[in-house]
Write a structure and sequence with these properties.
CATH architecture of the largest domain: Alpha-Beta Barrel
Radius of gyration: 23 Å
CATH class of the largest domain: Alpha Beta
Number of domains: 2
Strand order of the largest sheet: 9-8-5-4-3-1-10
Oligomer: single chain
Order of helices and strands: HHEEHEHEHEHEEHEHEHHEHEEEHEHEH
Distance between the termini: 54 Å
Bound molecules: FE(8)-S(7) cluster, iron/sulfur cluster
CATH superfamily of the largest domain: Aldolase class I
Length: 491
């Protein structure tokens, strides 16, 4: 596949080149947003590990796809937010169930996706149970895939209880990325989240269980860090149980070498049949989540672009092509196309240089922003505004302030356009979701939805389609500033 290189516009090229030379950071100005860091912020070995991983690098998530295969149904603990009928809720959206695969079926599926999706860079195993406890199947799958697709990175997610038993194998198998879910380091709090574990052939409960789980999780984190494996820690934010405590978790995992901390909101619904769902435990609001994330600033670097994907997710984060690759849809003959992935990665390398230079300029332009301003962006990847408003099922939220322009999260909403007509109720929902966002940037928008947004105080801008997001935001800020200056001179 060859993707087109599109020149940036809106900013003078000579200026852009000059700024590019001075560019020192990788697109995120926030000190707490380490996942956005670029090659200048880390040693070359670490950068090589994260540059194509959509979860470990916020920047990479614009370009690269991951896929999950649901091969490991067994689990050794019980989380109060999990119903075993569905997938592991530690790193997948609860309430959905994946097609369970044997390692051979999973390897075939990975081959099929790799042949079709040149953006694919990572294979993850994140359930439906625990990848480290159901180790035989996890290992068999990774072995099969790495023989056929050595360029695909391997990634696994676990509750941590069984992880210390597999460190040598993880290192030997070149698994560079491991996620451990740690919701508490205080066993009194942990016991409110995990009522029992199965450890050394015995079921254990309460504080004893939570203590063993915590010790094994932290041990695994230290062991992996010592061996050069990057560890991301996931924590599920449960209001009233561990919200205040997550700052302590953040400090504890940072001290033991965690590369990233991903604080995810509890998703709780009685229909999921989980203990928390049935007992009325609510999830956090977006504001509560942001408050806890912000309170962790200065500790372990935070991941803010997680989409809580499914245990059988396929595609860029935020898109899910899993249903295109169910077993019944896989072709009989699968021909790998490594040259397409190579060509795509070469294109991304060039695109990155161009985008980073543009982002550097944008940082400068934003530096004069008087007050923090939010922008909702419609994008289908590559860090560009390249999606019609009506097709967006999520908006990427960027914030411009005196420190620069940074990605601060995403907000989901059903797509407004239903093939020829717009859905008024969906528009109400979109307006609600964007209530504090004054600008929507999209590739195109019709007059009707533009007016609905304007009536709600949101300006839709579709004149910057295909621009880099940061560049577009910078040129909007510059143009607003020029208008204000003109008005002031005229007054
Ligand atoms: Fe999958 Fe997890 Fe690996 Fe990513 S997901 S096993 S680290 S390849 Fe990513 Fe999905 Fe969030 Fe997970 S967006 S749920 S953090
Ligand atoms: Fe469920 Fe995952 Fe917890 Fe096991 S570790 S109980 S599969 S959420």
């Amino acid at each position: 596949m060859s993707a087109p290189l599109i020149p940036i516009s809106g900013l003078a090229v000579s200026n852009r080149q000059e700024m590019g030379k001075n560019l020192a950071k990788g697109g995120c100005s926030s000190s707490s947003c380490g996942s956005s860091a670029g090659p200048a912020d880390m040693d070359p070995e670490t950068w090589a590990k994260v540059k194509d991983h959509p979860c470990y690098s916020e920047e990479a998530h614009h370009y690269f796809a991951r896929m999950h295969v649901a091969v490991s149904p067994a689990c050794n603990i019980q989380c109060n937010y999990c119903n075993r009928k569905y997938d592991c809720a530690n790193e997948s959206r609860p309430g959905v169930v994946s097609e369970r695969l044997t390692p051979e079926q999973a390897a075939r599926k990975v081959l099929a996706v790799a042949a079709e999706v040149p953006q694919l860079s990572v294979l993850g195993i994140a359930g439906p149970g625990d990848a480290a406890y159901d180790w035989r199947k996890t290992k068999a799958t990774f072995d099969l895939v790495s023989q056929r697709l050595p360029d695909i990175k391997l990634c696994l997610s676990s509750n941590g209880l069984a992880l210390p038993d597999h460190i040598d194998e993880i290192v030997a198998m070149n698994i560079d990325h491991v996620t451990i879910t740690i919701n508490a380091i205080d066993p009194e709090i942990g016991a409110q989240i995990v009522p029992w574990i199965f450890y050394e052939r015995k079921r254990r409960t309460g504080v004893e269980a939570a203590t063993i789980l915590r010790d094994r999780q932290l041990q695994a984190l230290e062991m992996l860090h010592e061996r050069g494996v990057l560890v991301k820690v996931n924590s599920v934010l449960i209001p009233g149980i561990n919200d205040d405590h997550l700052i302590e978790v953040n400090k504890a995992v940072k001290a033991r070498g965690a590369f990233l901390h991903n604080i995810m909101p509890l998703i709780s619904d009685p229909a999921h049949g989980t203990h928390f769902g049935l007992t009325g435990q609510r999830g956090p609001t977006a504001a509560e989540l942001k408050k806890v994330q912000d309170a962790c600033a200065g500790g372990a670097n935070l991941m803010r672009h997680c989409r809580q994907c499914r245990a059988d997710a396929v595609g860029l984060l935020g898109e899910d092509r899993g249903q295109d690759f169910t077993l019944d849809k896989l072709p009989e003959e699968i021909e790998d196309a490594p040259e397409a992935r190579e060509a795509y990665r070469a294109w991304v390398a060039e695109e990155r240089k161009d985008r980073q230079a543009a982002a550097g300029l944008a940082e400068q332009a934003a530096a004069a922003a008087e007050a923090p301003t939010l922008f909702a962006v419609c994008t289908r990847g590559s860090g560009r505004i390249n999606l019609h408003f009506g097709k967006a099922t999520e908006f990427q939220i960027y914030e411009a302030d005196a420190d620069g322009i940074s990605f601060v999260g995403h907000r989901r909403a059903d797509n407004y356009c239903l093939g020829g007509y717009g859905d008024a109720e969906r528009m109400d929902e979109i307006i609600k979701v964007l209530d504090d966002v004054p600008y929507v940037l999209c590739q195109m928008i019709g007059n009707g939805p533009r007016k609905r947004l304007a009536d709600a105080g949101i300006e839709a801008i579709d004149s910057l389609g295909e621009e880099y997001i940061e560049t577009a935001i910078a040129s909007i800020l510059q143009s607003r500033r020029a208008h204000r200056d003109q008005a002031a001179q005229g007054a």
